[in-house]
What does this fold into?
Amino acid sequence: MVMFRLLTHRRLSSILGGVLFGAGMSWGVAAWSQEVIYRCGNEYTNAPRDIQQCERMAPQAVTVISGTRPAAMRAVAPAVSPGPEPRTTSESPRGQNPQQIERDLQARTIVSHELDKARQQLNSLAQEYNNGEPVKWASESRHHQRYLDRVASLKAAIERTQRDIDSLQRELDRRPVVAGARTP
It folds into this structure.
């Protein structure tokens, strides 16, 4: 009888110990996942640089939202040509939806207008720059450094506008022209 009680006691203690250990581990994981979060302006962090300028956030339940897998894009073989010509496809790369086709046309129109404006701006900047020798203003006649600063800013503006034109042209080339659709 004593042996039975001893065995039962050992079994109960090992079972109880296992249960307590498991509960302690799950509590530890829960405590670890619920660290203190601070909001410092627009930044959320658990290790703020200056805790005086941060606000401690109330603990909240963690929500996990599973994402969707992107649909496989149809591969369109790029045409090899010496100049940048826009691709022409018989259908929109995003589907046959007429609203999507209209949005694609609107986006292409907007990019085209932006490209035209950038080219006009480049022309006016190039005329003002006058090959590195713009006309001196009256306020620059005594202050040569002002003139040099204006020349440098004009040159930087020309380079920036040229980069904008290049990126807009790449964006326009990336957008296909839908065959059979009206062009704006």
Remarks:
- The chain has a mean pLDDT of 74.
